[in-house]
UniProtKB/TrEMBL annotation:
Regions of compositional bias (Polar residues) in chain numbering: 48-57
Superkingdom in the source lineage: Bacteria
SMART domains cross-referenced by the UniProt entry: GATase_5
InterPro entries in the cross-refs: Class_I_gatase-like
Compositional bias segments (type: Basic and acidic residues): 16-31
Protein name stated in the entry: Phosphoribosylformylglycinamidine synthase subunit PurQ
Region described as Disordered: 1-57
Length: 345
């Protein structure tokens, strides 16, 4: 009799390998203890359970970054928050789905880029369905928890594949307030994967703290399905009127454009990012976490020669500084902490 292969069950948390704690540690009684991931530096993961004795006023902003199922930009995401002065915790999505980690213990929930479930049924579709329909023992979905998370004044950010997930979930732009998909992201008008640097302009009507004080920024895109399609003139007009189209692709003169390759995907409204009506949920196709240092840019040497005083921070870091500082400012009797940086100007 032919034996069936022993394949992993993707619906259960990953088990530790020999001499490698992975994403969980099991004690002698079989209880799972989650590593703390106090450092995002490779090789320095902690096996200390998540805990904090710091006061609400002094503890760092807590950013939860999800990984697993093909997500692959979690380390860059964590590095961005660390540079902005926050504490970044990377966990496998299963740890949240199985109740080992609660999103409510964090200030900012983050969906990184990558290729969740291989984009087999469309970018972000499978992961969005998993969050919408998979119920835990209490009969709640992760989408239920995310809605509660936002209702409590907390923040959600999705980049690239993470943006696609938020759109397919209906969290962006959520004009109706019913978390029903109103727009979609589909294949680029060019018909191919786009990997290039783009210029973006912030919509001055946007109310999102992620973008406060930013006018323009330059970041890379890496996507095959980044074309935003808005169904119906009424929805398009409402998105414009409420300033939810928070980022636009621009040409060299800084004017929003639909001309390829400045607009790499042909998005409606030349839109590179959206917020919800509260400004708390923010998603974008470009990768700010890929431009944290001037030296990430292919033209850094010429620019530094032309302007020796040019800041050595990348444009993308501004978004992370903004949201970390905003969360800190919202805390009662918060003690202002200077943002840390490994860069100088």
């Amino acid at each position: 009799m032919e034996e069936k292969p022993n394949l992993p069950d993707l619906n259960t948390p990953p088990r530790p390998q020999h001499e490698d704690p992975g994403y969980e540690v099991v004690d002698r009684e079989g209880n799972i203890k989650l590593p703390g991931y106090k450092s995002v530096d490779g090789g320095h993961e902690s096996t200390e359970p998540l805990q904090s004795s710091a006061s609400e006023q002094t503890k760092p902003v807590q950013a939860l970054i999800l990984t697993g199922f093909g997500i692959n930009c979690e380390e860059e995401f964590a590095a961005a928050y660390r540079l902005a002065g926050a504490e970044a915790t990377i966990v496998h999505l299963n740890q949240v789905l199985h109740g080992h980690v609660s999103i409510h213990d964090f200030d900012i929930l983050n969906f990184p880029g990558g290729f969740s479930f291989g984009d087999d049924l469309g970018s972000g579709v499978v992961l969005a369905n998993k969050l919408r329909y998979r119920k835990n023992a209490a009969g709640r979905t992760l989408l239920d928890d995310i809605k509660e998370f936002v209702a409590h004044g907390k923040f959600v950010m999705g980049i690239c594949n993470g943006f696609q997930v938020l759109v397919k979930l209906g969290l962006l732009p959520d004009l109706s307030g019913t978390v029903t998909p109103e727009v979609t992201l589909t294949h680029n008008a060019s018909g191919r994967y786009e990997d290039r640097w783009v210029r973006l302009k912030v919509n001055p009507e946007s109310n999102s703290p992620f973008l406060k004080g930013i006018d323009t920024l330059e970041v890379p895109v890496r996507h095959g399905e980044g074309r935003l399609i808005i169904k119906g003139e009424e929805i398009l007009a409402e998105i414009e009127n409420r300033g939810l189209n928070c980022l636009a692709y621009t040409d060299f003169d800084g004017s929003p454009t639909d001309v390829y390759p400045h607009n790499p995907n042909g998005a409606d409204l030349n839109c590179a990012g959206l917020t919800d009506t509260t400004g708390q949920v923010f998603g974008l196709m470009p990768h700010p976490e890929a431009f944290l240092s001037l030296y990430n840019h292919p033209d850094w040497a010429r620019r530094k020669r032309q302007n020796p005083n040019l800041s050595e921070e990348g444009d993308g870091l501004k978004l992370f500084r903004n949201i970390v500082e905003h969360v800190q400012s919202q805390r009662p009797a918060a003690v202002a902490q200077p943002a840390t940086s490994q860069f100088s100007s």
